[in-house]
Amino acid sequence: IAVIAKILLESNAYKNQLHPFLIYHVIPEFQSPVPFIRSRACWVIEYFNEVDWKENNGSTLQGVLQGLLMGLKDPAIPVQAAAACSMRLIISAEGATDLIRPMLRDIIGEYFRIMDQVESESVLSALQAIVLQFGVEIADMAPTMVQHLINIFNTYAASAEDDEAAFNASQCLDTIAAILEACDTREDVLLQLEPIMLPLLKNIFTEGLDCFEYIDNGVQFMGYLTYSSDTISSTLWVMCGPLLQVLYNWGIDYITEI
Cys staple from 251: which of 130, 175, 246, 255, with CB 3.0 to 4.6 Å? Predict the structure, then answer.
């Protein structure tokens, strides 16, 4: 079904039957006694994200979201990962934001718990999609989220020879950037983030720590933290020396950004 989902969505003969299909053949399987079937039920939703969720008074969307939320807390890790990935696509559906908002904090907590167990670029991308969708609404959770992402980044960055780990490390930094952008109107939150991010910034800008490949991210972070505030704090002034050392020693290509 997933393989032919695009055909079904584009066919006038079938697309009107997609809601009954989801209601009678997919949503019930979120509660299947077989973990593999529960995982597949979560997974297949990725391929039907273009369904018109407004139909059926939004009840299909509610059923799918409830199933995915159950999947996030499922005892089987593959079910959790599949639910997290599908949630990334379903949150942009009309009406989904209002349904998710009351549970947003719990959902983000589940994502971090899953990331502690599963190394998955897709789960990281899903978390980033949630940040982009809800924007400043995640501001109160930002310090905890950034600290957790830095911890995950450090784990991935330590595996320098692993290309997948390096990519996931970069994804962590991209998600931190999305959080900073979402909070750029909340100077109080940015001030809380500065001491949390300082060790990461020092690592990125200190020569010899093998983080030079993340300098673009580091410069981007500094931009958010400085330009979004009325003043530059003493915490950020500490970075002046490392930035100049980068410029003088090996980072001349970044002279404009620095």
Answer: 246
